[in-house]
Design a protein that fits this description.
Elements (H helix, E strand, L loop, with lengths): L13 H11 L4 H8 L3 H8 L7 H11 L3 H6 L11 E6 L20 H14 L8 E11 H10 L2 H11 L5 H16 L1 E10 L13 H6 L22 H5 L1 E11 L11 E6 L4 E3 L2 E12 L9 E2 L1 E2 L2 H6 L10 E9 L9 H16 L13 E9 L2 E8 L2 H4 L1 H12 L6 E3 L4 E9 L13 E11 L9 E6 L3 E6 L11 E6 L9 H12 L12 H6 L4 H20 L2 E4 L29 E9 L5 E8 L7 E3 L2 E5 L7 E2 L1 E5 L5 E3 L2 E4 L5 E8 L12 E5 L9
Parallel strand pairs: 2-11, 13-19, 16-18
Antiparallel strand pairs: 1-7, 2-3, 3-10, 4-5, 4-10, 5-7, 5-9, 6-7, 7-8, 11-12, 14-15, 15-18, 16-17, 20-21, 21-28, 22-27, 23-24, 23-29, 25-28, 26-27
Helix pairs in contact: 2-3, 6-13
């Protein structure tokens, strides 16, 4: 593979450039001095940057190295040598230790939605120009026939195959998965690639092995190297593992355009990384990881494969060619798949990527009159180099119109104090008290108050999930969804957004403290604010209580905003109205009749299988005995009776429990929530063709 690359405007320092060329050509400083008729000390001075040779000496050096004088003067390319690109497999540990897979890859499911969330978050965290959005492009590409053969040849598949075959012989999870992937590739002769390109991002800058973005991604685990750590979404260094976890072959190729030069260059820094379990090939044991690159000539890294500067032809063969010279990185996942099984065809995978980007990053894709969005995202699908599904720009307004309207109004300063129309957005502040760090402040210090921003607007007619608060911080990625409790009776459907930390668009000490506090309360999935080891070990006692108070304050603010409404609508929202019936008979033993449970809120949605997901919120009167309810799901078809369907899943919450198809609620409980999922196999018609009715009578023989 040729090693030349486009030059950069500013070349590398002469000494470091010359040192690397001597290593690449396996020439010592003494050898160069002898061939030039110079002293060893003179060459050493050049290498260490204390002096530079005269122009006539530079011309002679270029001749000795086998290059032209222009290359030596600009120092933007290495001297041409015949050093083939190859796979380097790490030898097994000398102490006999073995890893049967990358543990970091098991921190997340190999799900396309998780991949989109983690990879896009990393791109947002590395935004270069704050005045412009990060642009991410997901490209699915299915190869077969001659296209597949050409790619496997560029990948040096014949060199990898013995390692794959041996690594797949074990009984561990990774080995079984590899065995299945190899069998499918052999029988189907088809391979799916997923390339994730980002632009206006930093790129994998830094040295090959020591601290920097490149080493954090390519060489290390649990290293979260962020340029804006205070605003970053990730903090564990685990997100990058989803790239390898989404590859059935554990293989990812990388091409990065750097925001700052490395070795005098910025374009075409390429490397591949493979994660296999421990295995043996021809009696030699290997730890598992392997890297595709150029053999390193540094003495301490002799034989290790390092990144190289690839030319356009090589990038094309590896499907790593980028558009333009803007900084950023392209990750090519080889053998991409969705482990959840929900997306098997190209159309399903394409749609899942679009929907996932819209759900997790709709807020980052919203701009205002005076502010660009933080992110632009699109998805394209190819087959053998031809467009299979056209490029689709992710439009947040199409997927989350009410939420998008709320955030846009905030960015434009168009919020109101009281709702009087269905297209308005009301704003209120929600206090968050940040607990002091353990090594800062007095033990009795109450901490710092941060005012988060709550935005509320009437739900859109097409919203299937309503009465929720979407909470976010940092770069406006959705962290968690909160369902407010004890809403006023008759409250209209709404959508709400909670902006905390830097998501408020403000700066200041309280903003930075709130951002760090909430970040510390997130698990590796970054999907909730709750107890974590970092929170309890970093912050003084009471941190968890402050989070609970924050959630309660959000609920209280929602209730107060809904109590100040005078909304005018034409007609009503076209949302599903579930029917909930409760038995109104008396209890056992002739006890005096008492009031019965009432419905506070009901939500329902259809999943991709056609199953209904129902969540029912109940308010309960005081009772001496448990309530035992038997939920029944029925289809309200156009003619005839309402056929019942089976529950595939019925679960309670913290205040009730599911037992043998019933919901049991203990005496003294005043509110309860239960959820159910219908079994699509029992549906008389497809779920979307009929209205769902939920009947919740008292169970036969039940108490109360």
């Amino acid at each position: 593979m040729p090693h030349s690359a486009p030059s950069t405007a500013e070349g590398e320092a002469f000494g470091s450039w010359l040192r690397r060329q001597l290593l690449r050509t396996e020439m010592s400083q003494a050898d160069l001095a002898a061939r030039l008729g110079k002293t060893r000390a003179a060459v050493s001075a050049w290498i260490n940057g204390r002096a530079e040779p005269r122009d006539e000496t530079k011309a002679r050096i270029a001749e000795i190295l086998g290059t032209d004088l222009a290359s030596l003067v600009t120092r933007t390319v290495d001297v041409p040598i015949d050093r083939p690109i190859r796979w380097h497999h790490r030898r097994a540990h000398a102490d006999g230790g073995r890893e049967y897979g990358n543990a970091a890859a098991f921190a997340f499911d190999a799900d396309l939605s998780v991949l989109a969330r983690e990879a896009t978050q990393n791109s947002l965290d590395e935004r270069c120009d704050p005045r412009s959005p990060v642009r991410v492009h997901y490209t699915l590409h299915e190869l077969d026939g001659a296209y597949l053969d050409a790619f496997l040849a560029a990948l040096r598949w014949d060199d990898l195959l013995p390692h794959y075959e041996e690594a797949s012989r074990g009984n561990q999870k990774v080995s079984r998965s590899l065995r299945s992937a190899l069998t499918d590739l052999s029988q189907e002769r088809r391979l799916r690639l997923l390339r994730i390109d980002d632009y206006n991002a930093s790129g994998l800058t830094g040295p090959e092995y020591s601290d920097g973005r490149f080493a954090a991604v390519v060489r290390r685990q649990l290293d979260s190297h962020k340029i804006t750590a205070g605003r970053a979404g990730g903090s564990y260094g685990l997100g990058k593992a989803t790239l390898w976890a989404t590859s059935r072959l554990g293989l990812v190729l990388i091409n990065s355009t750097l925001s700052e030069p490395h070795e005098g260059r910025t374009e075409g820094r390429v490397i591949g990384r493979l994660d296999l379990p421990w295995h043996e090939v021809n009696g030699e044991a290997f730890a598992g990881p392997a890297w595709l690159g150029e053999p390193d000539t540094e003495p301490e890294h002799h034989g290790v494969s390092r990144s190289w500067w690839a030319d356009d032809e090589t990038l094309g063969r590896l499907h790593l060619r980028r558009a333009g010279t803007e900084p950023g990185t392209s990750f090519l996942i080889v053998g991409a798949y969705d482990a959840s099984g929900a997306a098997e065809t190209l159309q399903e995978m394409h749609d899942k990527l679009v929907r996932s980007l819209a759900d997790d990053f709709w807020a980052a894709m919203i701009g205002g009159r005076s502010a660009e969005p933080l992110l632009e995202a699109r998805v394209t699908t190819l087959r053998n180099g031809e467009v299979y599904l056209p490029e689709q720009q992710v439009d947040p307004h199409a997927y989350h119109p009410a939420l998008s309207r709320a955030l846009r109004a905030y960015l434009d300063g168009d919020t109101v104090d009281k709702l009087t129309a269905a297209d308005q957005v009301v704003r209120a502040d929600v206090p968050l008290v940040v607990t002091p760090l353990k090594d800062h402040g007095r033990p009795r210090d109450k901490g710092c108050e941060h005012l988060a921003v709550l935005l509320l607007t009437p739900a859109d007619d097409h919203d299937t999930r309503i009465n929720q608060v979407i909470c976010m911080r940092g770069n406006r990625m959705t962290i968690t969804e909160q369902r407010p409790r004890d809403l006023p009776l008759g409250s209209p459907p709404f959508q709400a957004v909670l902006l905390a930390g830097y998501a408020t668009g403000r700066d200041g000490e309280d903003v930075a403290l709130a951002e760090a506090f909430l970040r510390a309360s997130e698990p590796p999935e970054h999907d909730r604010w709750d107890r974590t080891e970092e929170l309890t070990t970093t912050y003084q006692r009471g941190a968890l209580a402050r989070l609970k108070e924050f959630r309660s304050a959000i609920d209280h603010t929602i209730r107060s905003l809904l109590g100040k409404r005078e909304i005018t609508r034409s007609g009503g929202p076209a949302v599903l109205r579930e029917l909930l019936k409760l038995d109104t008979g008396t209890g056992m033993g002739g006890r005096r009749a008492q009031s019965f449970p009432t419905v506070r809120n009901v939500e329902a949605r259809l999943d991709d299988r056609g199953a209904w997901h129902v969540t029912v919120h109940l308010r309960l009167p005081v009772a001496d005995d448990p309530w035992v309810l038997a939920p029944v799901a029925k289809f309200d078809v156009r003619s005839g009776g309402r056929p019942s369907v089976r529950w595939e899943l019925l679960v309670g919450s913290e205040t009730c429990r599911a037992e043998n198809g019933t919901i049991v609620i203990e005496p003294g409980v005043r509110t309860a929530v239960f959820s159910g999922v219908t079994d699509p196999a029992s549906h008389p018609v497809r779920g979307g063709y009929a209205r769902l009715v939920v009947d919740v009578p008292k169970a036969r023989g039940g108490e109360a």
